[in-house]
Design brief:
4 domains, 596 residues, alpha+beta
Length: 596
C-alpha cells in the first residue's frame, strides 16, 4: 500500500508537532473499524483519525465531517472510560514498520497516574487498534484475533501484547546504501522494483517503481543486468530516499486524467509520464484527507446499509427468477392454438373413436395435404370427453397467457423500482438519507417495522405516539445564471419534488431509461437559458446510476408533461413532449454549484 513506513514517519512528524501533550476531549467511532480522538491543546483542537480498515488503514489529523452512530459501539465506550481526558505524551513508530504506539497518561479508578498505549498496526487486512496497559497486557482491541483466525499471533483481552513478526528487511534510514545493495546481490534476480521491495523496509510499490524508473531511465531491467552506471544511480537514489525521510520530503498525490486520486507518496513521482497527473499537497494529513475522504464515506455508508443491500439483492434475485419462470410458462402457453385444433379434430372424428383408446390417428385438415397425425387420448374418458379436455386446456392456456403477461409486466416494473432504490442507496451520504430509504422500503412492504427498543405494549394502555420523522430537503444547486436546481435524494422525495412542490412550467430532468434522481429547475415564470439547462442535465446525470459514464442521455420537459400512473411505485412516472440532452457527468462542476 502507498502508506509505507517512510510516509508514516513523515506523517507522524507532522502529527507530533501539534498533538504531543494534547488532551483527549472526546472520542467517537463513526465506522466499525475507525476511531476519532478529538484532541485539544493550547490555542486549538483537531480530530485524530485511527483506522484499521483493510483498504484504508492509517493515522492522521482530518478535516472531514463524520456522522456518528446514535449508540456508541462497545470499543468506543471502552476508550471513553479509560482514555477520557487522557494526555498524549508519546507518538512512536516501531523501526520503519507501519506500527505506531500512542502513549497516553491518565488517572485510573484509584486516582493513580498510569500509562496506556494505543497500538495502531497498519498491515492491510491484519490492521488493528490495540489498547495495552502499562504491564504490557492487552486491555481491548477493535478486532479480536483468536487461534482459528491466526495460529501465529492472537490478539485478545488479557493476553500479553507482542509486536507482529518483523520482516527480514533493511531499514531505509538504519542501513547504508552499500549494505542494501550487498543484500540485493544475494536476493532474487527479478525486476529491480521487486528486488527493492524484497530488501528495503519502509517503501511501498510506488516508491520502489519510482526508484527503479530513475535507475533504469524508464526501462524494466532484471537486477543482474544492471551496469555500473545503473548501480551508481541506485546507490545515489537510495541515499536520496533516506534524505527525503529525514528531511522535508514532498507530499505528492497521483491522479488519473479525470482528476481522481489513484496513489500518493512522500516524494515527487515521475514514473507515469503523461498517463497520470501529480499534485503537491500542503501536508501529509491534507494529502490523506483528499485521497481517502470519498472512499471512507462510501465504506461507512455501505456498513450501515448492509441490511438493505442484502434485502435488495435477495429481492432482485427472487423476482428475476420468478419472471424467468413466468416467461418460460408464457412460451408454453403460446402453443395453446395446437390444443384447440386437437379438440376440433377429435370432435370431427368422434365416429371413429371409442372409449379405452390411448391414441387416435386422424387427418389434419388444418394443414395442406391433410397429413395424418396422432393425438393422445385418456383411455378413461369417452371420445367426447377427450375432445372437451383439449378445449378446457386451450381455455386455461389462453387465460394463463393473459395473466402471465400481466405478472411479467409487474415483475419487470418491480425490478426497475428495486434498481432505483439500489441506486439511491449507493449514493446515500448521511444517516438521514439511509433512514429515509429504510422508511420507504418499510412502507412498500420490503422491511418490517420493528417496535422501539425497551418499549412494551401493555393491554389497555395506549402506545405513546412516536415523533414524526423530519422530512429531508432535496439537494439544492444554484446555476451560474442564478436559477435554483433541486434534486431528489430518494424515490419518495422524487415524487414529492416532482408532483407536489414543483409548478407546471418548472423544467424536469431525468436520465433516459437509467435509475436516477428527479431534477427540477425552478423557472419562476422566467425563460431558462441553455447554460442552466445543460448544468441541470449534468446534475441529473451525476445523481444517477450513470455517474461514472460518458455521453449520458438526459430527458427534460416541463412539469406539466410528467404524470404518475395509478398504483405506480414511488419515483415511477411517465412523461411526453420531451427533449434529450447528451452530457457527461462532471463532479467538479456539480460540487461547485452545490448550495450550502
Amino acid at each position: 500500500m502507498a502508506l509505507d513506513g517512510a510516509f508514516l514517519s513523515k506523517l507522524l512528524e507532522e502529527i507530533s508537532q501539534t498533538a504531543l501533550d494534547a488532551r483527549v476531549d472526546r472520542i467517537f467511532q463513526p465506522g466499525r473499524e475507525e476511531i476519532i480522538f478529538v484532541l485539544r491543546w493550547k490555542g486549538g483542537s483537531g480530530k485524530l483519525l485511527l483506522s484499521a480498515n483493510a483498504d484504508s488503514a492509517r493515522i492522521q489529523f482530518t478535516q472531514a465531517s463524520f456522522e456518528n452512530p446514535k449508540t456508541p459501539p462497545m470499543f468506543c465506550m471502552f476508550l471513553r472510560k479509560h482514555l477520557g481526558s487522557a494526555r498524549l505524551v508519546e507518538i512512536r513508530q516501531i523501526s520503519m514498520d507501519r506500527i505506531v504506539h500512542l502513549g497516553f497518561e491518565t488517572l485510573n479508578e484509584l486516582g493513580d497516574l498510569v500509562r496506556i498505549t494505543v497500538a495502531v498496526e497498519i498491515m492491510g487486512r491484519h490492521s488493528n487498534i490495540i489498547v495495552v496497559d502499562q504491564t504490557g497486557r492487552i486491555m481491548e482491541s477493535i478486532k479480536h484475533v483468536d487461534e482459528e483466525m491466526s495460529a501465529v499471533r492472537q490478539v485478545l483481552p488479557g493476553m500479553q501484547y507482542h509486536l507482529p513478526p518483523m520482516q527480514d528487511k533493511l531499514s531505509l534510514v538504519g542501513a547504508t546504501p552499500d549494505e542494501m545493495i550487498a543484500r540485493m546481490d544475494k536476493g532474487r534476480d527479478v525486476e529491480l522494483s521487486k528486488v527493492l521491495m524484497d530488501t528495503v523496509m519502509g517503501i511501498s510499490p510506488i516508491v520502489a517503481r519510482e526508484l527503479a524508473h530513475y535507475v533504469n531511465r524508464g526501462e524494466h531491467t532484471q537486477y543482474s543486468q544492471l551496469g555500473q552506471g545503473e548501480r551508481d544511480r541506485l546507490r545515489f537514489g537510495l541515499g536520496q530516499l533516506a534524505k527525503a525521510v529525514t528531511g522535508e520530503g514532498a507530499p505528492t498525490l497521483v491522479l488519473d486524467l479525470s482528476g481522481k486520486p489513484k496513489d500518493f507518496s512522500f516524494i515527487e513521482i515521475h514514473q507515469y509520464g503523461r498517463a497520470m497527473m501529480t499534485r503537491g499537497c500542503d501536508g501529509y494529513c491534507a494529502l490523506l484527507d483528499t485521497f481517502y475522504s470519498e472512499r471512507d464515506l462510501v465504506d461507512r455508508m455501505r456498513q450501515r446499509s448492509n441490511d438493505m443491500l442484502r434485502l435488495l439483492i435477495n429481492a432482485t434475485d427472487r423476482i428475476t427468477r420468478k419472471v424467468a419462470t413466468q416467461k418460460e410458462e408464457l412460451m408454453q402457453s403460446t402453443q395453446r392454438e395446437t390444443l384447440r385444433r386437437y379438440g376440433d379434430l377429435l370432435h370431427a372424428n368422434l365416429y371413429q373413436m371409442k372409449k379405452g383408446q390411448s391414441v387416435v390417428r386422424v387427418e389434419n385438415f388444418f394443414e395442406e395435404g391433410m397429413p395424418e397425425i396422432a393425438i393422445a387420448l385418456d383411455p378413461a374418458l369417452t371420445p367426447s370427453q377427450n375432445a372437451q379436455r383439449y378445449y378446457n386446456e386451450y381455455r386455461k392456456a389462453d387465460t394463463a397467457e393473459k395473466k402471465l403477461r400481466e405478472l411479467i409486466a409487474q415483475g419487470e416494473q418491480e425490478l426497475v423500482y428495486l434498481d432505483s432504490v439500489f441506486d439511491a442507496l449507493t449514493r446515500a451520504r448521511t444517516e438521514a438519507e439511509l433512514n429515509a430509504i429504510r422508511s420507504e422500503l418499510g412502507e412498500q412492504g420490503y422491511l418490517r417495522s420493528a417496535p422501539a427498543k425497551n418499549q412494551k405494549q401493555r393491554p389497555g394502555n395506549k402506545s405513546r405516539k412516536q415523533p414524526k420523522e423530519e422530512k429531508l430537503p432535496p439537494m439544492k444547486y444554484i446555476s451560474t445564471d442564478g436559477f435554483t436546481i433541486l434534486c431528489g435524494r430518494n424515490n419518495v422525495q422524487n415524487d414529492r419534488l416532482t408532483l407536489k412542490e414543483s409548478r407546471n412550467y418548472d423544467i424536469w430532468f431525468h436520465t433516459q431509461k437509467i435509475p436516477g434522481s428527479h431534477t427540477v429547475v425552478i423557472a419562476d415564470g422566467k425563460p431558462v437559458p441553455n447554460t442552466t439547462l445543460e448544468q441541470a442535465a449534468i446534475i441529473a446525470a451525476y445523481n444517477s446510476k450513470a455517474r461514472e459514464s460518458t455521453r449520458v442521455a438526459v430527458d427534460y420537459t416541463i412539469i406539466k408533461n410528467v404524470k404518475k400512473p395509478n398504483g405506480a411505485k414511488p419515483g415511477m412516472v411517465i412523461y411526453d413532449n420531451y427533449e434529450t440532452a447528451i452530457v457527461t457527468p462532471d463532479e467538479q462542476l456539480v460540487n461547485s454549484l452545490r448550495a450550502l
